[in-house]
Amino acid sequence: MMNSLNFKSNILLKNYTTYGIGGYAKRFIEVNRIESLVEVMKLIDKEGDRFIIIGNGSNILFDDRGFDGVVVLNKINFIEWRENIVNVGSGYNFSLLGSQATKKGLSGLEFGVGIPGTVGGAVFMNAGANGLEIKDAVESICYIHKNGFIYDFSKENGQFGYRHSVFQQIDGAIASVKFSLKYDDSVKKRKIEMINYRKATQPYREKSCGCVFYNPKGYSAGKLIEECGLKGLKLGGAQVSTVHCNFIINIGNASSKEVLDLIKYIQFKVCDKSDVMLQTEVRYISYD
Fold first, then answer.
1. Is 281 one of the catalytic residues?
2. pLDDT tens per residue across span 258-286
3. H-only helix segments in the chain
4. pTM of the shown model
5. What is residue 126's three-state secondary structure?
6. How far apart are CA 51 and CA 65, in angstroms?
7. What's the rounded Cα separation, in Å, for the pair 176 and 142?
């Protein structure tokens, strides 16, 4: 039955993440329309399979053994502009959206320029930078529950918090998002400043998942790690970035085990020195 929807088998997941880490997916399918995603979700629910939705794979660490379930690659990338309102598919490139909005003189998403994720992933994690968060621009979210039913969420119902949304607690997929942006003459200048700062302070061109740890309240995770003398620490192919210590980069053929072991070691050293237990922002996806 799955083959009727063009499911593929044994697809190497390292090719679908910014980390370049991960084994084979038992089943894999790419969707580019909301209607297709509904059908896929209904079938997965009926079959009782474990599943995960991915976009650019920028906040994910797959296991070296892969994923014993269904991986859905979200390529729903339509975009509809109406003055300062934009309705966009959840698979749309978030960095591109931020850049396009900025060119129109619209503010609210400029912090996303340079972030290698999709709109759906950014909303799922309530992405933020430079004092801005995506929730501030959200007007509504179209969501598909795993049973195939479509729901409209308001910003308030999204229960957004620091790197958190209600979508992390329910089974389904973000299908599209409507944003309400504001005209701002200074947004283009601000975008350039943000890009330059990011390039200067983050391992911009290295293989990573982005920030590994949440910033504890009142602390900088990167600073806590650096104060432990862990900058540049290597474990196999995984390394604490010498540019920003809250990034663990893949300097060769890093395994998920090497990354996870390095994460645990960092947590131990920071807790031992500062009495702060760092919590992971990266989503580790186990095999089974």
1. yes
2. 999 999 999 999 999 999 999 999 999 99
3. 34-47, 94-103, 119-125, 187-201, 221-227, 256-274
4. 0.92
5. coil
6. 16
7. 5
